[in-house]
Design brief:
With about 1750 residues, the chain is of the alpha+beta class. It is built from 52 helices and 40 strands.
Length: about 1750
């Protein structure tokens, strides 16, 4: 039976226990356990580091230790009874152990080994302490050694500073906060090394004044001047020079050297200057002759100015020669330095070309004491100290200062009966209480000792002189009372005697009767007139007179009316004297003890800066009052008078609280210097007051708080107090408040704050709700609560388990407490909640992102409340949604939030809104925010260091799409555009980078609208930004070899330059465009591979999960390399070995599955690919760019497989993938939007294979004849492959499979297809014969034997096909071209191949589901027979037709070989045309696109819903048969040859490239043949809208090489001509009837012959099936090559879209013609005339 333990509560594990028994608890040696129960040699309990897991373990494995038990019972805690040093050592070593291992993992070997030695040393010392044999002194030394080691290790590992007293850890609850602070500071000081201070001091050494016209003594005054605020920053430094311009006392260095001290970092700026005023001592006029008069005057000489910023860069050792300037008029002397600074040249001039003041100037940095040590010689020789006006940023405790500065500003004097103005001199005296002149208490500046009196400047003949001279009166504090300053005014005569005649005086007392000193500021003094010989010794007489006009009684009009006045400015810098009466009353409370209450209450109103100056005195006063009260009343009296005394004590406490709050606020609001030493000083000063405040608050009980809050007389006072204390608390929470490792101090501070806030929240509820609601107080409260919860020191999840456990045991989770308080206060707000929506959404969201489940459960419901109130107010909650979305992005990018939060947010809010009337819109908002979280979390995970670029790019694209399509957040959208752009540049995806930046470019217009500074863009016009973007995009298109796209942007820019007549840039742009054309023709481009990738399983990120993509591979990247790259990017993924669609078990698996195979692109731009004579360099672009659709073929056998002839049952499963965007685009991969699956029958497959091979043969023959091939080997290999395969049974297999009676009987519906296959086989034989003839012409001599072998094998092949004679073919002579060589003619009319002159085969069109027709020979819309010599679609390199596979490859269990569908059956072993680079793909399970059938480059048939009527499809280049004839009569044999002679008979043709092109038509249009002009075409009659542009009404039927045309149709139809490619009908691009399997009855066609070709009327915009086929797509709204999407209002991008045209110019149209894809061509206007630019649409504001 299990019994709860009484004493056996705590123990240490002696040996490891595996816990293999039932309910066993695994233990490791050294673990500490808490024991709950015992039973027969077993204990039940838990390990202290993991208290949630409980189990049983043997008692013999445990060493019991004594322990104290707290909270005995279910939630008891155990504290071991042992030396506190031992306890600390044990817990610290456990923490170090885990971190020590991490050091090894992080490869920090040095610290790893040092810590290892220290840990061993501590363990040894621990053993010594545990043994207990040490003497007391030795024990003390050991403990000191241990704690030193522990502190060192904690510091190295970034752990917390431990407060100790006598080597033992201190419990913060057991000592006062002030004592805790002192302990922490002491520990911190010991480990802190002194850091360099950021105080600055200016050293000035005056050398000499160099001037040609000296001869008089000089006085030099230096001061620091703030040019921004136009005021002096320092007192003056005064140097006397002799008549030679040298210092008067060279032996006294302190009189020529000074240190301007305490300059802050903010003072070292450009507009702070050193200003030098130079005064001469001598005659009134500088040029006066010497006379007997010995009277000397102080007269202006010059001024010099230098910026302090110049000293930062100058060499400190160099002397500076300052230029001296003189003012033009003496009345400007007071502001000469300002004029020099402002460069007002008309008001001053150089005092002489050779005049200059030589001084040494040097900036010194650091504390004064530090400078004394470093520059000992300087201070030993003597240097005067020149102080700042006012106090420094930090007032240190005990700092004493008492300086009064008086500036003689200006005077207004009457002439006094004189004909000219006076020369006024002022003499200044300081007199004490008894009227005695204070000796040496007037200082003109530092550097010279004080004098008894001071004589001002004399300004010549000026009754309104302005002196602006500053003097310093360093009067002792005890002499201030009763002292006054007297100013005597004398007129200085310029006559021979040079007398100075007294004519008036002014005075000002330094202290008022109530003890306040003279207020700072400007004072207008009264000038009392007197006679020349008046004696002013009787001071008592004039002191009774008024001294200032401001203090005159209203009835004294006589003095008020006088014009004579004298102005001074006073400034007191004192730590002992105050100008504030309330402060004075408090400091002198003993004089009037009855006024204590009044003084204390007024203390709240005193300015904080005043309190700081007298802080020490103020605190002394407050505590003095407290002490005096207790002493005065005694204990008994105190008891009896408790109510009276307690009121006084509480008032003192309240005052003390107010003083501390304002002190902390004042200090914190002062600008801090950046240096570490200044920060330390700041922390020292503030920390003391913070500790006092916290100690005071911690001592206050519930009753104290109630009395404190009740003591406020008005709501305004309470409001001010709450705002003040909330602000101070926010300051205390700041990270910089305490050093980083002072966690103990921070936790104590937070505990005091939350306790206080809980008390104050009641006052907030009672006093500031309902009609008394105060937004500012509530906002301050919520703001404080939010930053309290988000403090780093409260994020327990980031702490070690032991540290987390200690904090939770002592304080609990203070975040949850504060969260509950926020929720409670929010609920109390009622309708006032609307004041905080949406302002508090962001802060509350930040709180909910804290990873604390309880806090999240409390706070998330507030969002439901916000939605509800917003719905009531405005009928929706758009504001809530917008704010949530904006803040989520910034907060999650900072690392906040996780998957758990997303699920919790979704579930809590969905549950909350279940019963709301606005439930639907609420669900929509929650779903939107949840989806955004998914993407943001993915984005954050992908952006981690070490992730591959592909994953980062894919994730950014997903987020970018979301911001654009679902949220329509333009600014965020643009930000992520640029993030994606940077990722592409880093990965060197230059094409994708261009497409990405183009998204932003699309949002801008060519306008002069100003755009604000954004991201890295300066403030500029929209035109300039778009120009910059265009140039950047063109540059990247160039780097990505996507030159065609660059050309279009070049043209658009050129168009803009031309419209502004900016021909210089226009020229550059045209040259750039030309260079891009050159690169297209001259440089080689690699043809990329495309791969389909499926990401299956729940372990993939959201943007990939259970989706399939098509990816554009890197250069030279084949399937195996791509697979390996994807497996490297997703190292935990499993590669699937089949290509079938996975089932639901794979979709829902907690794993990652990758399915990869190669796919073939299906180009959109068929017209370019089918044009004759277009170089392969150009065609290659259109084959692999702007691709929306991709195809993948998988062969399989249906039914019984015939081992003799497997082609009877060989079907092809054809999968067509349509993407959401074309490739390439803003990413290397895009998601598959639509998937179509069709099955191709064996017969249809055979037809396709032979069609493709015939196309390849024709292409190679044409290239060979036109000498496009440098080498005939491709033709040789192709001929060899086809003939060899046919001889070995290739075509014969098809005959055996499909031409036998059984097949024809069993498949009557395939009759036409069988006929088609037969025709193609005969056509192939005919092409081979002609190919051999061409081959014979060009074959080199060493390959003649091979050629002869091919000819022999060809005859065998004909025999196997049953072709004995090609009568019509052969009679037409060997296949030849006019003039013996092929002429690549785009408009040639192909002649008819007629192997049997009299035979015409009639067939009806048959359905070939989803079959890609590549040739006019397979087109059911045409009866034209192709001329094989006119082909130039592609080379062997492009189409890469592979030889037929062997039978074994067909039966392989691998994924279908691409070769199966690409040629006739035969052995693949002897196929010479297979390129080496493709052979490796044959064995691979995933198929390479290069080995796909060539039909992949032709368009898919459209869906039935999108089909165009058959009569809309046609081409005037095709001959039409007479609809009135019966089918067998329609075709007549016509003698024909394979030459192109019939081109002479060809009529004008016109382009069928009507409709919007989805890719840029950069290659030039083919020129029209003779007689075909735009003018002729525009004159044709229009056709109905429902017709094709060619008004084709003839039903299509299947052409064949065995059929021939009516001679009359060829010779009598002037409207007919060859298509772009004389071998492939352009109709094959839009043969809809073939795909649909429908045909038009003969009776539906008009009986009249075809009219001449007509131009496209305005009502017909396109006849191509492309826009029709695309109109139901749903692409993203920002694809560069946009598809039509009627459901989406987003305008189509205009940069690269091409309008339809019927009359294409020789060059592509200009960019303003490319604006929109929906432009109609006007039948009467020339499309080459530039069109006006469209009106600007709504564009980006960024």
């Amino acid at each position: 039976m299990w019994i709860p333990t009484e004493h056996e509560k705590y123990g240490v594990v002696l040996a490891s226990f595996r816990g293999t028994v039932q309910h066993g608890l695994p233990l490791e040696i050294g673990d500490t356990v808490q024991i709950l129960e015992k039973c027969e040699g077993w204990y039940r309990g838990f390990i202290l580091k993991n208290p949630n897991v409980k189990g049983i373990f043997p008692s013999s494995y445990i060493h019991l230790k004594n322990a104290h038990i707290k909270n005995k019972g279910q939630f008891e805690t155990v504290i071991p009874v042992e030396d506190s040093v031992i306890t600390e050592m044990t817990s610290t070593l456990r923490d170090w152990g885990a971190m020590w291992k991490q050091l090894y993992v992080k490869n920090e070997g040095d610290l790893f080994h040092r810590l290892w030695h220290v840990m061993n040393e501590i363990l040894d010392l621990r053993r010594q302490v545990l043994v207990g044999h040490l003497t007391h002194d030795r024990m003390r030394d050991v403990k000191q050694h241990i704690t030193a080691r522990l502190d060192w290790g904690n510091e190295q590992l970034g752990l917390d500073l431990v407060p100790r007293r006598e080597f033992s850890m201190v419990d913060p609850d057991e000592i006062s906060v002030t004592e805790l602070y002192r302990l922490m500071e002491h520990r911190h000081r010991k480990k802190e090394t002194p850091a360099p201070a950021s105080n600055h001091h200016l050293f000035v050494h005056v050398k000499s004044l160099m001037s040609a016209n000296l001869g008089e003594e000089l006085e030099i005054f230096f001061h620091i001047y703030d040019g921004r605020e136009n005021r002096p920053l320092s007192e003056r430094f005064f140097v006397r020079l002799n008549k030679s311009g040298l210092p008067k006392s060279p032996e006294k260095t302190e009189r020529q050297c000074t240190l301007f001290v305490d300059l802050g970092s903010s003072d070292l700026r450009k507009d702070v200057y050193i200003v030098v005023h130079i005064i001469r001592i001598g005659r009134m006029g500088a040029g006066e002759k010497k006379n007997l008069c010995s009277v000397q005057y102080r007269r202006p000489f010059g001024c010099a100015v230098v910026s302090i910023a110049d000293l930062l860069t100058a060499d400190s050792k160099d002397d500076h020669l300052l230029k001296v300037y003189a003012c033009n008029t003496e009345s400007e002397w007071y502001q000469i330095h300002e004029n020099i600074i402002k460069k007002a040249n008309s008001r001053y001039n150089l005092s002489g070309s050779n005049t200059g003041l030589a001084v040494a100037l040097q900036l010194l940095h650091g504390d004064i004491e530090q400078l004394r040590r470093e520059y000992m010689v300087l201070f030993t020789r003597g240097v005067s100290i020149t102080r700042k006006l006012g106090f420094s940023d930090v007032i240190m405790p005990g700092e004493m200062r008492n300086d009064l500065y008086i500036t003689l500003e200006k005077g207004e004097f009457e002439k006094g009966g004189k004909s000219v103005a006076r020369n006024v001199e002022i003499t200044v005296y300081v007199l004490d209480l008894e009227g005695q002149i204070l000796k040496s208490h007037v200082a003109a500046g530092s550097g010279e000792p004080g004098v008894d009196d001071y004589h001002s400047l004399v300004l010549y003949h000026n009754n309104s002189p302005r002196w602006a001279e500053q003097i310093k009166l360093p009067i002792p504090v005890d002499m201030f009372r009763g002292s006054h300053v007297r100013f005597e005014f004398r007129h200085c005569s310029t006559k021979d005697k040079g007398e100075k005649k007294l004519f008036g005086y002014s005075f000002v007392p330094l202290m008022q009767e109530d003890g306040r000193t003279l207020p700072d500021g400007t004072h207008e003094l009264i000038i009392h007139k007197c006679e020349e010989n008046t004696s002013l010794a009787d001071y008592s007489r004039y002191l009774k007179l008024p001294f200032s006009k401001a203090n005159l009684p209203t009835n004294n009009q006589t003095l008020k009316g006088t014009k004579e006045s004298f102005w001074i400015t006073s400034f007191l810098c004192s730590t002992k004297l105050t100008q504030n009466g309330d402060m004075l009353d408090l400091l002198k409370w003993r004089a009037h003890p009855e006024r204590i209450n009044d003084s204390l209450s007024k203390l709240k109103e005193i300015d904080g800066s005043e309190i700081v100056k007298f802080l020490q005195d103020t605190l002394d006063t407050l505590f003095g009052i407290l002490d005096e009260s207790s002493q005065r009343y005694g204990l008994k009296v105190f008891d009896s008078l408790e109510p009276v005394v307690s009121e006084e004590v509480e008032l003192i406490v309240e005052s003390l609280l107010g003083v501390l709050l304002r002190t902390i606020l004042e200090i914190s609001n002062r600008p801090q210097s950046a240096g570490p030493a200044m920060r330390l000083q700041f922390q020292d000063v503030t920390g003391e007051f913070v500790a006092c405040l916290l100690a005071l608050l911690r001592q206050m009980s519930d009753r104290h708080y109630q009395q404190l809050l009740q003591a406020f007389s008005s709501k305004d006072d309470l409001r001010d107090f709450l705002l003040q204390i909330f602000t101070v608390f926010r300051i205390l929470i700041r990270p910089e408040m305490f050093p980083k490792d002072w966690t103990v101090m921070r936790l104590v501070t937070n505990n005091v704050i939350i306790t206080t806030v809980l008390y104050l929240s009641d006052a907030l509820r009672k006093n500031f709700l309902s009609d008394k609601f105060d937004y500012k107080v509530w906002d301050s409260y919520f703001y404080l609560s939010v930053i309290f919860i988000n403090q780093p020191c409260l994020q327990l999840e980031s702490f070690s388990p032991s540290k987390r456990k200690k904090i939770l045991e002592k304080y609990g989770d203070m975040r949850v407490m504060m969260g509950c308080e926020i929720f409670s206060m929010w609920q109390n707000l009622g309708e006032h909640k609307l004041n905080f929506i949406p302002a508090m959404i962001g802060p509350f969201l930040e709180v909910t992102l804290v990873p604390q489940p309880d806090l999240r459960n409390v706070m998330i419901p507030i969002f439901h409340d916000m939605m509800d109130w917003e719905q009531r107010r405005s009928g929706n909650f758009k504001q809530v949604e917008a704010k949530l979305i904006d803040k989520l992005d910034s907060l999650m990018s900072e690392g906040k939030g996780d998957e758990t939060y997303r699920e919790l947010f979704n579930s809590i809010l969905l549950k909350k809104i279940e019963r709301e009337t606005w439930r639907e819109s609420g669900i929509s908002l929650i779903a939107t925010v949840t989806r955004l979280m998914e993407r943001l979390l993915d984005y954050r995970d992908c952006m981690k260091l070490g992730e591959v670029d592909g994953k980062k790019i894919g994730c950014t694209v997903s987020l970018l799409n979301f911001y654009k399509t679902e949220l329509n957040k333009e600014e965020m959208y643009i930000r992520y555009i640029h993030k994606l752009y940077d990722l592409h540049l880093k990965a060197q995806n230059y094409t994708e980078a261009s497409y990405t930046l183009l998204l932003y470019d699309e949002l801008l217009e060519w306008s002069d609208r100003p755009l604000r500074e954004f991201l890295n863009y300066p403030m500029q016009s929209e035109w300039q930004r778009k120009e910059y973007l265009h140039l950047t995009i063109v540059q990247n298109f160039d780097r990505g070899k996507c030159w065609e796209n660059g050309i279009i942007l070049c043209r658009e820019l050129a168009d803009q330059y031309e419209s502004y007549y900016d021909y210089r840039n226009l020229s550059k742009m045209r040259m750039m465009e030309a260079s891009l054309y050159d690169k297209i023709m001259d440089q080689q481009r690699l043809e990329p591979e495309f791969f389909r990738v499926g990401f299956y399983g729940k372990k993939f990120p959201f943007f990939l999960r259970n989706k399939e993509f098509v990816c554009r591979g890197h250069d030279y990247e084949r399937l195996e390399a791509f697979q390996q790259r994807m497996l490297n990017e997703f190292p935990h993924a499993i590669a699937m070995q089949h290509v079938n669609q996975p089932d639901q078990t794979i979709y829902q698996a907690d794993a990652q599955y990758l399915q990869i195979y190669a796919v073939t692109p299906i180009p959109e731009s068929q017209d370019v690919l089918q044009r004759d004579g277009v170089p392969d360099n150009i065609k290659s672009f259109y084959k692999f760019n702007h691709i929306w659709r991709f195809r993948y073929d998988r062969p399989f056998h249906k039914g019984t497989k015939d081992k003799e002839n497997e082609f009877k049952s060989l079907w092809v499963e054809r999968t067509t993938l349509t993407l959401v965007q074309s490739l390439p685009g803003i990413s290397r991969w895009f998601e598959v939007e639509k998937r179509e699956l069709v099955e191709v029958s064996p017969l249809e497959n055979a037809i396709e294979v032979i069609e493709n091979k015939n196309l390849q043969l024709r292409t190679l023959i044409t290239q060979c004849q036109s000498r496009q091939m440098q080498n005939i080997n491709p033709l040789t290999m192709c001929l060899n492959g086809v003939i060899d395969a046919a001889v070995n049974g290739g075509l014969a297999r098809y005959q055996e499979a499909f031409f036998v009676k059984d097949y024809i009987m069993n498949h009557p519906e395939d009759g036409e297809k069988i006929g088609r296959l037969r025709e193609l086989m005969f056509e192939q034989a005919h092409i081979l014969e002609y190919g051999l003839a061409v081959h014979e012409k060009f074959v080199p001599q060493d390959m003649r034997p091979l050629h002869k072998k091919l000819v022999d094998q060809f005859h065998l092949m004909k025999s196997s096909l049953g072709i004995q004679e090609f009568s019509a073919y052969v009679r037409a002579s060997p296949v030849h071209f006019t003039n013996g060589s092929p002429r690549p003619c785009r408009n040639s009319v192909p002649n008819i191949i007629s192997p049997d002159g009299g035979r015409g085969v009639v067939r009806r069109s048959y359905p070939a589901v989803n079959r890609y027709s590549s040739s006019s020979l397979s087109s059911q819309a045409s009866n034209e027979v192709s001329n094989i010599t006119g082909q130039s679609e592609s080379s062997d390199e492009v189409f890469n037709m592979q030889p037929s596979p062997s039978t074994s490859s067909l039966s392989s269990n691998h994924s279908a070989s691409p070769n199966v569908t690409s040629s006739a059956p035969s052995s693949a072993r002897g196929s010479p045309q297979m390129a080496e680079k493709h052979k490796h793909s044959r064995e691979n399970a995933c198929l390479s696109p290069r080995e796909r059938p060539v039909s992949a480059i032709f368009p898919n048939p459209v869906d039935p819903a999108q089909r165009a009527p058959p009569h809309q499809i046609g081409d005037t280049t095709l001959p039409r048969s007479d609809p009135n004839l019966s089918a067998p009569d329609k075709v007549r044999p016509t003698p024909s040859s394979w030459s192109l002679d019939s081109v002479k008979e060809g009529a004008p043709s016109f382009s069928d490239s009507v409709g919007k092109l989805l890719c840029p038509p950069v290659p030039p249009r083919p020129p029209y043949s003779a007689g075909s002009s735009a003018k002729n075409m525009r004159s044709q009659s229009p056709v109905p809208t429902s017709r094709s542009p060619q008004k084709t009404t003839i039903p299509p039927f299947t052409p064949s090489p065995t059929e021939c045309q009516s001679a009359s149709l060829v010779s009598n139809s002037p409207v007919l001509s060859g298509s772009y490619s004389s071998g492939i009908s352009s109709l094959s691009r839009c043969s809809v009837s073939e795909a649909s399997g429908t045909e038009l009855p003969a009776g539906d066609h008009p009986p009249h012959p075809l009219p001449p070709p007509t131009t496209l009327p305005n009502s017909v915009s396109s006849s191509s099936d492309e826009p029709i086929r695309r109109e139901n797509k749903t692409p993203p709204p920002y694809s560069v090559y946009e598809r039509n999407n009627p459901r989406r209002p987003v305008p189509l991008p205009h940069s690269l879209s091409i309008p339809p045209q019927t009359d294409p110019p020789a060059l592509p149209p200009k960019p303003h013609q490319l604006r929109t894809g929906s432009m109609k061509l006007d039948g009467t206007s020339d499309p080459r005339v530039p069109r006006p630019r469209p009106l600007p649409r709504k564009v980006s504001q960024l």
